[in-house]
Design a protein that fits this description.
Length: 323
């Protein structure tokens, strides 16, 4: 796959690069880009937009914004559709800033995000990256926020607790992450976090600094377990102990089996709960679901009830007002 990189006007090297990936997001891309442009920053930024040959008005909208902000917005429209993985790699390889942030084209930033993350990395040299909480948006309404996390944590914590933040919340040190984007293999964001987690601690801001659109993107429509395992394999190569690696695999397969149960996909549920049990034989929760796996009239309603109670508990605990 070959993509021609367009030339752009010479500008001062930015402190922060913001990488945006988009495909056919005409209803959200303007809000996404303007939320970045309107950040109150005391440093230079660049916005690198990877437009994966959109067939709707996405390209037109980006072009209009680029004409208004030519020194900030770099619009790369691929001549052919190269796919989400390659587009992700491409825009991050183009980043030139000291720090690199990411935002999907259907998400947007809240005021102060870039400045707060920039300040965090400036003041915490032991951290290779920093993430934050995000408000969750679905069907034109806010439905909650992502979970809290420790202010700083290591690679072991990341592997055992993934996902504990979303890709549109990250900012990392470019020199510590650049090598991750120069291969040709496909990978998901978790792989990048592991690579960065091997170079330093991961920082976390327990404040919602962005908005995530629930139910869109490749993670909602594809089985990504092979890519999840590749990230866990990478963590193992960096020395995460074997018991934590096994538990991480068990949790990921269990999570996927639960999502398949919610979708009433019994075949995928059965396959993944079997694998989860193999890796997490000491987990009471996995063993309970595994033992009930053939009880069709019990297991799927039980899982839905468990998820509902978890949601109620989260809403009771998290009393933020989402704006």
């Amino acid at each position: 796959m070959t993509t021609t990189t367009p030339s752009f006007p010479e500008t001062p090297r930015p402190k922060v690069s913001v990488c945006v990936v988009t495909y056919n997001q005409e209803n959200t891309i303007e809000k996404c880009l303007l939320s970045i442009i309107e950040q109150a920053c005391f440093f230079d930024i660049e916005i690198i937009v990877g437009d994966d040959c959109s067939t709707d008005r996405t390209s037109v909208i980006i072009g209009e914004i680029n004409s208004r902000y030519p020194s900030i917005v770099k619009h790369i429209r691929h001549a052919v559709n190269i796919g989400a993985f390659a587009n992700y790699r491409f825009v991050h390889k183009m980043a030139t800033g000291d720090y690199v942030a990411h935002c999907d084209g259907d998400d947007w930033m809240l005021p102060g995000k870039l400045a707060k993350q920039n300040n965090f990395l400036d003041n915490n040299v032991d951290c290779s990256m920093v993430a934050h909480r995000m408000n969750l948006h679905k069907d034109d309404r806010f439905i909650g926020a992502t979970v809290e996390a420790p202010r700083k944590f290591d690679l072991n914590y990341l592997v055992l607790n993934h996902p504990c933040f979303l890709n549109s919340s990250i900012m990392y040190r470019r020199l510590l992450g650049a090598h991750l984007f120069f291969g040709e293999q496909d990978f998901i964001d978790f792989y990048v976090y592991v690579g960065l987690g091997a170079s330093g601690l991961i920082g976390f801001v327990n404040e919602s600094l962005g908005v995530y659109s629930v139910g869109s993107g490749i993670s909602s429509s594809r089985n990504l377990m092979s890519y999840v395992n590749a990230a866990i394999d990478l963590a193992a190569s960096y020395g995460v102990n074997s018991s934590d690696i096994a538990l991480a695999r068990a949790k990921q397969y269990f999570s996927y089996s639960i999502s398949m149960a919610v979708r009433n996909d019994k075949l995928e549920f059965m396959k993944n709960i079997e694998i989860a049990k193999k890796w997490g034989a000491n987990s009471d929760k996995i063993l309970l679901i595994y033992r009930l796996r053939n009880c069709d009239g019990v297991i799927f309603p039980l899982i839905r009830a468990y998820l509902y109670l978890s949601l109620v508990k989260k809403k009771f605990r998290d009393k933020h007002v989402y704006q």
